[in-house]
Design brief:
alpha+beta; D-amino Acid Aminotransferase, Chain A, domain 1; D-amino Acid Aminotransferase, Chain A, domain 2; six-stranded antiparallel β-sheet; 29% strand; binds N-(5'-phosphopyridoxyl)-D-alanine
Length: 285
């Protein structure tokens, strides 16, 4: 069955879902996106994703064409129409399609809003048991990585380099320190059991999963330091892992071909994954 997508007010078969070639998302990457996980047919931590959506569009002076409440209704309708049990809902809003290609914002344009779903068994992903390999690449992105913009070419190149090296993710490096993964947040657990992840700033995307994991860990009295870490610190760590809506908590077992600890998923990582899944199920809407 052709999946159903949403385009500017209509639910249409994905193969017929189209926007203009003059859409500013296409011409300028002038748009924002969000990816929410779906478990048991329900949206995971969606309020956090919608709050970040609102912040991102605000930072580029783009007005949402629908209220956040309506956006969540559309997400839910799309899940229902696709009978999606486990997977992802992608949503993107752009500044719309003009009559030409002016860099400055045109007046009176209606923003484009599209959504589609994809099936993914996040819970039973084999990589959660085996862990993933990451490579490192220079972080060549712009200085507003806190905005979830669709300008993802640096990450496309980083993740392609990872794929060519047989790795699942690329950790991006700036000034000798890991910023984050191409599409995930990066964590380590030090030998003295401190959970370390970079502090939020313009240098990284404020991950919704990262935020939830930090809170869940704090509630369990784990020690947390929000600060940059280097690759050598990660290689000397007890454990490493990545978080995102599409991975939840995913063990990182090697970096540039060198094992993290014994090269197996760590006990704390596995525990945090279970805790996150419990939270996700209990709070999904
Ligand atoms: N990526 N950092 C970057 C650069 C990301 O692109 C993502 C998410 C994250 C994790 O954020 P969250 O926990 O809110 O998913 C961190 C999504 C999943 C993607 O691009 O597909």
């Amino acid at each position: 069955m052709d999946p159903i997508a949403y385009v500017n007010g209509s639910f249409v078969p994905l193969s017929e879902a189209k926007v203009s070639i003059l859409d500013r998302g296409f011409l300028f990457a002038d748009g924002i996106y969000e990816v929410s996980a779906v478990l048991d047919g329900k949206l995971v931590d969606n309020a956090s994703h919608l709050a970040r959506l609102q912040r991102s569009v605000g930072e580029i002076s783009l007005e949402l064409p629908e209220s956040l409440e309506r956006i969540e209704e559309i997400q839910k309708e799309l899940i229902a129409r696709n009978k999606l049990e486990s997977g992802l809902v992608y949503l993107e809003v752009t500044r719309g399609a003009d009559k030409g290609r002016d860099f400055a914002f045109p007046k009176g344009l209606k923003p484009t809003l599209i959504m589609f779903t994809s099936v993914k068994d996040i819970i039973n992903a084999p990589s959660a048991r085996t862990g993933i390999a990451v490579i490192t690449v220079p972080d060549i992105r712009w200085e507003r990585r806190d905005i979830k913009s669709v300008a993802l070419l640096a990450q496309v190149l980083a993740k392609q380099a990872a794929a060519e090296a047989g790795a699942a993710e690329a950790w991006m490096i700036e000034d000798g320190m890991v910023t984050e993964g191409g599409s995930s947040s990066a964590f380590i657990l030090t030998q003295d059991n401190v959970l370390v992840t970079r502090h939020n700033s313009n240098e990284i995307l404020p991950g919704c999963t990262r935020k939830a994991v930090v809170k869940l860990a704090q509630e369990r009295q784990l020690r947390i330091e929000e600060r940059p870490f280097s690759v050598s610190e990660a290689l000397a760590a007890k454990e490493a892992f990545a978080t995102s809506a599409s991975l939840f908590v995913q063990p990182v077992v090697s970096i540039d071909g060198k094992p993290v600890a014994d090269g197996k998923p760590g006990a704390m990582t596995n525990r945090l994954r279970e805790i996150y899944i419990e939270f996700a199920r209990a709070t999904a809407v």
